């Protein structure tokens, strides 16, 4: 069935109430974030505005009333959570994978074990995107619930886009690319659990986000406006920026 036909069928079928679950991949090592003087701690556990980064991420997600339960997927060598009390709506699974896609697939299987239905929705959100707001998550849910496929937060490209080629070892501009239809993918990304797991299993471990897997399966995910502040902490400079934004928000 095409996405258009599936949307029409969804709109005309009697109201059902699939639940929304959140899955937070938290098993990366943060190689690109490691500065010469930084502690050897995965970036999601480094302190930002007085708390480990992942706590800000969790606070935003847990504040969304429509999220039934949040699953954090950590590495099997992670001892950060030992002895820490967790909220009843938070589950932790130590089945992180070698890639983000594997971590997410493992988490989806765990959600099904926890009682989620294949037709339920999942919002997959990077632990390292600690600036997402509850309003942005709610906007994504509002946009995706009536949709057959689902979608993702994304940011329309704000700058002029250059395509590069290496000339004599240095990157030089090959051409300026039309940016009118270009968006930067953010998270959360919201899809049906069963469809996403099937898409990820078919796509393999190399896809870098959930939408890519759904695209390979023939779907056209919705693009829902996120925001510049919903950036992923990726490089050493990003910590100071994230801290400044969080402190300003209070
Ligand atoms: N095997 C992996 C790799 C990444 N992630 C998670 O996916 C999110 C986004 O990934 P990214 O920023 O690429 O994190 P890292 O893989 O940790 O970073 P790097 O590529 O710099 O090592 C992060 O919350 C990270 O913890 C994960 O759960 N399992
Ligand atoms: C999922 C993601 O945050 C979308 O932008 C991103 O692709 C994950 O991190 P990576 O830098 O691509 O590994």
Automatic annotation (TrEMBL):
Its EC number is 2.7.7.60. The record marks 179, 232 as: Positions MEP for the nucleophilic attack. Pathway: Isoprenoid biosynthesis; isopentenyl diphosphate biosynthesis via DXP pathway; isopentenyl diphosphate from 1-deoxy-D-xylulose 5-phosphate: step 2/6. The record marks 32, 43 as: Transition state stabilizer. Keywords: Isoprene biosynthesis, Nucleotidyltransferase, Transferase. InterPro entries: IspD (IPR001228), IspD/TarI (IPR034683), IspD/TarI_cytidylyltransf_bact (IPR050088), ISPD_synthase_CS (IPR018294), Nucleotide-diphossugar_trans (IPR029044). It comes from the Bacteria. GO terms for molecular function: 2-C-methyl-D-erythritol 4-phosphate cytidylyltransferase activity. It is an enzyme of class 2 (transferase). It catalyses: 2-C-methyl-D-erythritol 4-phosphate + CTP + H(+) = 4-CDP-2-C-methyl-D-erythritol + diphosphate. PANTHER family: 2-C-METHYL-D-ERYTHRITOL 4-PHOSPHATE CYTIDYLYLTRANSFERASE, CHLOROPLASTIC. Catalyzes the formation of 4-diphosphocytidyl-2-C-methyl-D-erythritol from CTP and 2-C-methyl-D-erythritol 4-phosphate (MEP). Belongs to the IspD/TarI cytidylyltransferase family. IspD subfamily. This is 2-C-methyl-D-erythritol 4-phosphate cytidylyltransferase. It comes from Comamonas guangdongensis.
């Amino acid at each position: 069935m095409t996405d258009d036909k599936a949307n029409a069928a969804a709109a005309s079928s009697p109201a059902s109430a699939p639940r929304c679950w959140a899955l937070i991949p938290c098993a990366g090592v943060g190689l690109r974030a490691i500065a010469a003087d930084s502690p050897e701690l995965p970036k999601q556990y480094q302190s930002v505005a007085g708390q480990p980064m992942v706590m800000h991420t969790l606070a935003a997600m847990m504040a969304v009333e429509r999220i039934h339960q949040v699953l954090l997927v950590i590495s099997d060598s992670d001892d950060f959570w030992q002895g820490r009390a967790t909220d009843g709506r938070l589950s932790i699974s130590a089945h992180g994978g070698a890639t983000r896609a594997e971590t997410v697939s493992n988490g989806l299987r765990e959600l099904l074990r926890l009682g989620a239905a294949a037709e339920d929705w999942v919002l997959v959100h990077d632990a390292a995107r600690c600036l997402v707001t509850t309003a942005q998550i709610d906007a994504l849910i509002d946009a995706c619930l009536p949709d057959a496929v689902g979608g993702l937060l994304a940011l329309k490209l704000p700058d002029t886009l250059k395509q590069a080629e290496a000339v004599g070892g240095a990157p030089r501009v090959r051409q300026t690319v039309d940016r009118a239809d270009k968006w930067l993918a953010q998270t959360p990304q919201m899809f049906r659990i069963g469809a996403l797991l099937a898409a990820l299993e078919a796509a393999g471990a190399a896809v870098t986000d959930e939408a890519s897997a759904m695209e390979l399966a023939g779907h056209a995910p919705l693009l829902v406006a996120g925001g510049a502040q919903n950036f992923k902490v990726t490089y050493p400079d990003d910590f100071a920026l994230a801290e400044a934004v969080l402190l300003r928000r209070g």
